Amino acid sequence: MAAKRLPRLNGFWLLSVLIGMLLLVSISFYSANTDIATAEDALSTRVDYIKEQCADYSSLNLASEAKSLLRVTESAQQCARDIWYLTEKPDDLYPAAEDVLPHFVENHYLTGLLLLSRDGQITKSYCKEEALLPLLNKVLTTDSLLDVADHPKKTYAVRLVCGDDSFLDIAASAREGADCIIVAFYHTPAEYVHTYKLSYQHLVSGFHIATDGTLAVASGNKIIAANDESLLGLSTDEVAPLQLIKQRGVYDRMVYVRDTGMGTSGYFGYTEKGRDCYVYAFLPEAAVFTTTPKNIIFVVISYTLIILLIELVRRRTMHSYQEEKLLQEKAYQKSLEKAARKAEAANVAKTEFLQRMSHDIRTPINGIRGMVEIGDHYADDMTKQAECRRKIWDASGFLLELVNEVLDMGKLESGEVVLEHRPFNMVKLLTGLQDVLEKQAAGRGIRILCDDIDLPHPDLIGSPIHVKRLMMNIMSNTVKYNKDNGTITMTLREERCDGKTAWVKFTCADTGIGMSEEFQKHIFEPFTQEVLDARSTYGGTGLGMPIAKSLADKMGGTITFESRQGVGTTYYITLPLEIDPNAAPQPETEKPADDATLQGVNILLAEDNDLNLEIAQFLLENAGATVTAARNGQEAVDIFAASRPGEFDAILMDVMMPVMDGYTATRTIRRLDRPDAGRIPILAMTANAFAEDRRRAYEAGMNEHLTKPLETELVIKTLAKYRK
């Protein structure tokens, strides 16, 4: 046993490992993509923020610079006008121009003033900070500055950035006809610049490298701001991650870069181009995949615990499984023994069934053949001939009843019975059954009483063929097992109604032989009869009550009974039936059929069996009809198509025929382009007597469904209904 479990165990662990690897790969892939997406979103958010802030800082600093240069320029122009005015006064209020320079410097809040000759030489000067003068020399001799002497309306302004990050704003101006250039300048100390200027470095210094990554702002290739101060002043080509990011040349999207000289890990980088700078951000690979290792560890631990738990449960259940298997084996042995006994009983039942059927079928056949021989012997004795024909008719009727009941039972047991859903009149149905039974009961002096009918809703919707079969089985039993000169009392009542459904209760009581208490327990079992000679004495098959019970169950109803041996039996049947809301008033009486009913009627008869054709043709012609015969469905279609409109009054159509069956022939006739094709009565004539066969006939376009063997009175009555 252990040797057999080992492969299963190995298979379990192999499957567990495969599932675990697949789960691990899936979680790793999903988690890594999530981390990458999170990192890209974070880097893009930070870079976009810094880029926008840099643009704002640049705009504000540029505005501040322009404002400062404008102020210095206005001061230079004003000083030029004042100096020209003083030098041109006749009384010379100030003895020398240099004496007014300190005054102008103070009044205009300047750092210094210079008077230049046309060639850029300083003729007069005043400066609060003498150390700044050497810085001015490279500007004073430029053509742009000297050009203002020749164009007095032109001004020159420039900002110099000193080595200590301080600003030197310079402006030059001249008056028309003057021989000198006025240069004004203002020095912004480094302390003020560092305090009040909007610096990119201030912008990025609030981000932490460990959580936000490395952020850098570059002007061209020079890094001018970074949250890693060691990068300030370096070229972007000197920083390996920035160099690789630049080589990729991808903006507005995160990229992965890696270099053999960078070790085993790479970087995820993001860059955007601003108005006058580039903004970079990068994170080490390890800083991006923060949740992936945790997720992998969690999945591995969880999956391992689950597998171990499953294995523990497997081990615990294995012992129970072995015990259960032993119990199952014992139960299986018992079931085999039971099945063997059941099979043996089934074989016995099958043998008994075949024996009963052999006896029940052979008995009427033997009677029929025997009566034929007796009739042949007394060929000239008309009285004996009539007696033989009557006995042949009775024997064939019993054989037909036996076949119908066996087929009904087979249909019910296989679940193939299909209930109809069509309107019918319950009182009319019961009255019709009573008329049939009265003919059987009259020979034995049995009276049938049916005076107690209380049915407020006689028009119902259901399966009348099955209701009739159910009630006929009960009623025929009350005749068959009744005493001579006995009585049968039937009642029909409506027990209750909810407006849509009526519960109809049918009661049928006889004064017959009754049943013993022991037999009452088996009355609904097939082929069960009270006494061994029941078939000989009463002609029963033992299938009537099982069929009745199955039909009642099929229609959602109930069937019960009360019986005393030697006194009689009372049957109670309750069926829920839908009330017909569109019921039309029923005619009071119907015209009885007689032999002259079909006089002058022209009928097309389609039948492939010679014997059945001869019988049907005799019945119809004997009733006065003119018959035209067809041997198959195609021949029937051809004969009708070749006839004059209205030549035939009705068509009797067998269902199962060669070349073309009756259903197809009916549909073909209905589609013919002639006035009588759609209205001529077509009656199905078939041995298929079930509800589904009736439904197929109606769907094919037939008007009625007549079952074989044909009943002369029913055939004549049905055809008379469609007589013109």
Dominant shape: elongated
* Residues in β-strands, percent: 15-25%
Our count of helices gives 21
Low-confidence segments, ≥5 residues, pLDDT <50? 1-7, 90-97, 532-538, 588-596
User: How large is the radius of gyration?
Assistant: 59 Å
**What average pLDDT do the residues reach?**
80
What would you call the structural class?
Answer: alpha+beta
Q: How many individual β-strands?
A: 22
Query: What is the rounded distance between the termini?
Result: 86 Å
Query: Roughly what percent helix?
Result: 40-55%
- Biggest sheet, in brief? 7 strands, mixed
Describe the 3D structure:
- By secondary structure, the protein is of the alpha+beta class.
- The strands form four sheets. Strands 11, 12, 13, 14, 15, 16 and 17 form a seven-stranded mixed β-sheet that branches.
Question: What secondary-structure arrangement, pairings included, does this model have?
Answer:
Blueprint: H1 2-88, H2 101-107, E1 112-116, E2 122-127, H3 133-140, H4 143-146, E3 156-161, E4 167-173, E5 181-188, H5 190-196, H6 200-204, H7 209-212, E6 214-219, E7 222-226, H8 240-248, E8 255-257, E9 267-273, E10 278-284, H9 285-288, H10 291-377, H11 382-414, E11 422-425, H12 426-442, E12 447-454, E13 459-462, H13 464-480, E14 487-497, E15 501-510, H14 517-520, H15 534-537, H16 544-554, E16 558-564, E17 568-579, E18 602-606, H17 610-622, E19 626-630, H18 633-642, E20 650-654, H19 662-670, E21 682-686, H20 691-700, E22 704-707, H21 712-721
Parallel strand pairs: 12-14, 18-19, 18-20, 20-21, 21-22
Antiparallel strand pairs: 1-2, 1-5, 3-4, 4-5, 6-7, 6-10, 8-9, 9-10, 11-13, 13-17, 14-15, 15-17, 16-17
Helix pairs in contact: 1-10, 10-11, 11-16, 12-13, 13-16, 18-19
